[in-house]
Amino acid sequence: MTKILLIASIVLSLGAAALGFLNRGKLMDARMEVENSASQIAATQKQLESVTKDIEAKKTEITGLSSEKDQLTSQLGEAKTELDKSKADLTAATEKATALEAEVTGMKADAEAKDLKIAELEQRPAGGAAPAAAAADGGTAELTGTTAERDEARTLLAAAQDENTGLKAQIAELQSKEKSRQTSQMRQGLQGTILAVNQAWNFVVLSLGDRQGVVANAEMLVQRGNQLLGKIRITSVEPSTSIADIMVRTVPRVFTVRPAATVIYQAKRD
To answer: For position 266, what pLDDT does the model report?
Structure first.
């Protein structure tokens, strides 16, 4: 009986040892799995913190870009207003010159009429002694008044002619500058970028201006990478920037002209 119990005890001890060995292996595996999970959690945490920092940086960048965009939009509006004012001033100057030209013509005609009247008064004959004296006095007074009116008319005419000459010179200078801009040549392959886009009015602000040789009415290609997006036409040129209208018909429906796109000038070949 004792022998049986001893054998049973040994068997149980061996079983317990085997079970403990198996449990120890599982425990080691569980510990390794926990350590791996903790390492993965730590790596994920660091990655999450990095992504969070990137998101905050992007938010700050977006805020700055939005502010810059608002500023450029404001500058665009001011530039458009200034351009419209310049066009209105030129139109008003042209109309004033036309009206002044008509006024000068009228003054010339009036001065010529007064010259004829003075000549007529100077050649009028005396009819008798007393009547001749009275007529002479009246004629002299009329001649003096007419001469004064003629001199005043000529003074006004000279002033109007001077003003008209000045207006004509101003208009000629403006027209000469505009013609010079329109006929000057842009450098082949000139490149720049779009700083801002106004989708409501279909115009853009470019990073190129008069200093880079940009001229009004020139057409430029719009690209993003190697993809052609469409064309724009220059409408207003400033020293370092310019405004251009989007040629909507050249832009496919699947594309949109956006800031940071590249603009390139390619001269038309005959």
So the answer is: 87
